C-alpha cells in the first residue's frame, strides 16, 4: 500500500508509504493519495486531515525512475504535472483543514506538496529542498507561486536556484511553515492540533481557506465584498449560532461542522 489511512475521532491520518524511496511519488501513490483525499471528503465524520510520511523522509518528490516516455520519445512531464496539479488543487480546495507533519526531508514536489497544506509542522531534523534545479527543472506543484508569497522574493529565488536544504527551524523563522517541533514530539503535536481542528467550525475554516486563496488575486475592494458575502453566508450557519450562544453562556462551543 503506497498510502496508509488511519481513522481517528473526527479526522484521518494519511501517510505516504514508500519509505525505501523516501516516499517519492509514483503513479500508484498519486492514485492512492487522490482516493484517500476523496474518501476523507465524503466522510461526514471527517473534519480534518493529517498528512505525513512513513519512515525517515516526508517525500522526495517525483519518483525519478517512474517518468513515462511520450510519443516523441522524450519524457512526458506534462502528464506527470497534470497529476500534481490535480493533487495540489484538491488539497487547497478541501472543505476542511489539512495539517502536514513533515517528519523528514521534503524535496522537490514533496516540499511543495507540504507547503500546499494549511498548517505545516516539521520535525527539527527535517529539511525542505527545492531540488528541481539540480535536475534542470523549475519548482512545480505551485512552488513558483507559493515560495515568494511565503518567504519573499529574495529568499524564494535563492531557494529555487540554489536548491540547498532549508532546515525546519529556519523554515519556521522565515515563515515558510508554521512550526518546527522536537522530532520526538512531532506526531503527538500534529495529532493534538488536528484533533482540535476537527472540533472547530469546519465550514468557517473552509470558507477562510477560500477567502485567503481569493485574496491572492483580488483587489482590496473585491476582497471586502467577498468577505461581506462569505460572512453573510456563515451568519446562517449552525456553528455561528452555537459560537455566539456559547460565548454568551460562558461555555465551550459544541460545533458540528455541518451546514
Ligand atoms: O518527472 C519529473 O521529473 C517532473 C516532476 C518533477 C517534480 C519533482 O519532484 S522534481 C524533483 C525530484 N526529486 C528530487 O530530485 C530529489 C531526489 N532525492 C534526493 O536528492 C535525495 O534522495 C534527498 C536529498 C531527498 C535525500 O537524500 P538522502 O541521502 O537522505 O537519501 P538517498 O540515499 O538519496 O535516498 C534514499 C533512497 O531513496 C535511495 O535509494 P537507494 O540508493 O537506497 O536504493 C534513493 O535513490 C531513493 N530516492 C530518493 N529520492 C528519490 C529516490 N528514488 C526515486 N526518486 C526520487 N525522487
Can you give a write-up of this model?
- The protein is of the alpha/beta class and about 260 residues long.
- The protein has helices at about 25-40, 75-95, 110-115, 145-150, 155-160, 170-175, 185-195, 200-215, 220-235, 240-250; strands spanning about 5-10, 10-15, 50-55, 55-60, 100, 105, 120-125, 125-130, 165, 180.
- The chain folds into two domains: about 5-200, 2-enoyl-CoA Hydratase, Chain A, domain 1; about 200-250.
- The radius of gyration is 19 Å and the shape is globular.
- The model has no long low-confidence stretch (mean pLDDT about 95).
- The structure holds ligand T3D.
- Ligand T3D binds near residues 21, 62, 80 and 140.
Task: Please give a quick description of this structure.
It is globular and about 65 Å long.
Please list the strands of the largest sheet in the order they lie side by side.
1-2-3-5-7-10
Which cofactors or ions or other ligands sit in this model? ligand T3D
Average of pLDDT: 97
- CATH topology tier name of the largest domain: 2-enoyl-CoA Hydratase, Chain A, domain 1
Q: Taking Cα atoms only, what radius of gyration do you get, to the nearest Å? A: 19 Å
The CATH class of the largest domain is identified as Alpha Beta
Amino acid at each position: 500500500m503506497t498510502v496508509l489511512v488511519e481513522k481517528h475521532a473526527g479526522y484521518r491520518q494519511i501517510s505516504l508509504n514508500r519509505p525505501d524511496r523516501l516516499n517519492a511519488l509514483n503513479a500508484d501513490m498519486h492514485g492512492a493519495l487522490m482516493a484517500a483525499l476523496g474518501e476523507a471528503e465524503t466522510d461526514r465524520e471527517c473534519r480534518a486531515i493529517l498528512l505525513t510520511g512513513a519512515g525517515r523522509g516526508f517525500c522526495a518528490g517525483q519518483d525519478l525512475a517512474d517518468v513515462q516516455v511520450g510519443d516523441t520519445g522524450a519524457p512526458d512531464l506534462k502528464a506527470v504535472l497534470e497529476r500534481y496539479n490535480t493533487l495540489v488543487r484538491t488539497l487547497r480546495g478541501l472543505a476542511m483543514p489539512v495539517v502536514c507533519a513533515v517528519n523528514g526531508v521534503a524535496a522537490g514536489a514533496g516540499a511543495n506538496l507540504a507547503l500546499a497544506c494549511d498548517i505545516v509542522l516539521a520535525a527539527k531534523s527535517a529539511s525542505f529542498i527545492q531540488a528541481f534545479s539540480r535536475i534542470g527543472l523549475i519548482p512545480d506543484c505551485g512552488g513558483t507561486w507559493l515560495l515568494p508569497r511565503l518567504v519573499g522574493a529574495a529568499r524564494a529565488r535563492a531557494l529555487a536556484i540554489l536548491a540547498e536544504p532549508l532546515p525546519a527551524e529556519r523554515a519556521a523563522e522565515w515563515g515558510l511553515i508554521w512550526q518546527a517541533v522536537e522530532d520526538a514530539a512531532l506526531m503527538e503535536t500534529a495529532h493534538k492540533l488536528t484533533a482540535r481542528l476537527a472540533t472547530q467550525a469546519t465550514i468557517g475554516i473552509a470558507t477562510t481557506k477560500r477567502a485567503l486563496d481569493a485574496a491572492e488575486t483580488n483587489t482590496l475592494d473585491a476582497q471586502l465584498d467577498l468577505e461581506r458575502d462569505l460572512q453573510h453566508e456563515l451568519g446562517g450557519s449552525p456553528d455561528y449560532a452555537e459560537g455566539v450562544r456559547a460565548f454568551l453562556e460562558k461555555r465551550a462551543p459544541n460545533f458540528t461542522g455541518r451546514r
